[in-house]
UniProtKB/TrEMBL annotation:
Coiled coil: none annotated. Pfam families: Ni_insertion (PF01969). InterPro entries: Ni_insertion (IPR002822). This is Putative nickel insertion protein. GO terms for molecular function: lyase activity; nickel cation binding. The lineage of its organism: Bacteria, Pseudomonadati, Myxococcota, Myxococcia, Myxococcales. HAMAP family: LarC. Keywords: Lyase, Nickel. Belongs to the LarC family. It comes from Anaeromyxobacter diazotrophicus.
Length: 403
């Protein structure tokens, strides 16, 4: 069944609050920390505690940094860290897209070229962990559709590395340009730049959530205490339902949930640009991308670039494909798809823990496949072939379910 993640910035939104809410929701801490350990950023650890705000119990996450760290990082430095990491391809592209989004906002605010942007707060270890951690969380949840309530941004002033700035800070407003927001809120910075990037880059903001059945709820607590509201970010994960009350997938999706296929033909575009276009489309919200060879007019060899995108991301994906290629246009049309309900099950193998993705249709088991990135990591650690780890993981999963 298709799932929905409903994001409610009750007291605001920040990267650490998102991670905390995800852990309170039930995202496995060990899997999150294992993915973040591949970033190659030394000297940090997650400190997770239980706390309460206005009688609401939840999780609080602190990224504890130990040892000397760079005072600032260029966008290219952060991109290199992410590209060299062991994050899954989709999580890696999502993190890169979020950092590029932040970089472009900073460049616009400070009137400099993107290549000249140096991050201060966002370049710190805790912010890198927050952004990459959010991408990992979405990956661990199986990339559900994410819908967020329009946030209140706060008011007053906040002290930053650039001096005293009005709330919301210019970078936050730039990140949320074109995104529904609510004026007012608590006196203070309710939405941080990282929080704004996560809302704008991972969610459909200000869209009324379709009917869904809540299954799990998580609360992430912020550091500050507001006098008029609990400073929490709430995540609710549940199964999408149709207007008739049936499970999503039993009927064609309503227009607002439409999936679009976008395609364009290329016969004069270097291969490096094709690869970049596919990365950019994923970062813009595409669900899948591909390139296939074709024969064009006058017998010219060419490529068909394709992407699947939800209605909310169609324009952004189209812009990414056109901006990164030599094409002067593309075509798109709505499509229907049957999507399996997905569940990640961790199994113990001879080589270590591996997650297995299990797919079901209407409750019927359709298949199980070990996560490649997990298997590749275990194979590197033990010097064996990836297929050996995959076979062991599948055998362990079958043994666990008694088949």
């Amino acid at each position: 069944m298709a799932e929905l993640l409903y994001v409610e910035p009750v007291g605001g939104a920040a990267g650490d609050m998102f991670l905390a809410a995800a852990l309170d929701l039930g995202v496995p801490r060990a899997a999150l920390e294992a993915a973040l350990a591949t970033l190659g950023v030394p000297g940090f650890r997650l400190e997770v505690t239980r706390a309460e705000a206005s009688g609401i119990a939840g999780a609080h996450v602190e990224v504890v940094v130990e040892g000397p760290q760079p005072h600032h990082r260029a966008l290219s430095d952060i991109q290199a860290l992410v590209r060299a990491s062991g994050l899954s391809p989709r999580a890696r592209e999502a993190a890169l897209g979020l950092f590029e989004r932040i970089g472009r906002a900073e460049a616009k605010v400070h009137g400099v070229a993107l290549e000249q942007v140096h991050f201060h707060e966002v370049g710190a270890v805790d912010s890198i962990v927050d952004v990459c951690g959010a991408a990992v969380v979405m990956d661990l949840l199986g990339w559900p559709r994410a819908v967020a309530r329009a946030p209140e941004l706060g008011q007053g002033f906040v002290k930053t590395a650039h001096g005293l700035l009005p709330v919301p800070p210019p970078a936050v407003l730039e990140l949320l340009r074109g995104v529904p927001v609510q004026p007012g809120g608590p006196v203070g910075e309710a939405v941080t730049p990282t929080g704004a990037a996560l809302l704008a880059g991972l969610c459909e903001v200000g869209v009324a959530p379709p009917p869904f059945t809540p299954a799990r709820v998580g609360y992430g607590l912020g550091r500050k205490r507001w006098p008029d509201r609990p400073n929490v970010l709430r995540l609710t994960l549940g199964a999408l339902t149709t207007a008739e009350g049936g499970r999503a997938g039993a009927h064609p999706p309503p227009p607002g949930d439409a999936i679009y296929q976008l395609e364009l033909n290329l016969d004069d575009c270097p291969g490096q640009l094709v690869a970049r276009a596919l990365e950019a489309a994923l970062a813009a919200g595409a669900l899948d991308v591909w390139a296939a060879p074709c024969t064009m007019k006058k017998g010219r060899p060419g490529l068909v670039l394709g992407a699947l995108a939800p209605a909310a991301a169609r324009e952004a994906v189209a812009r990414a494909l056109l901006a990164e290629t030599t094409s002067l246009g593309l075509r798109s049309w709505p499509v229907e798809r049957i999507e399996l309900a997905r569940e990640l099950v961790e199994v113990a193998t001879r080589y270590g823990a591996v997650r297995v993705k299990v797919g079901r249709l209407g409750g019927e088991l359709m298949g199980a496949h070990p996560e490649y990135e997990d298997c590749a990591a275990r194979a590197r650690e033990h010097g064996v072939a990836v297929k050996e780890v995959m076979a062991d993981a599948l055998a362990a999963w079958r043994a666990a379910r008694g088949s």
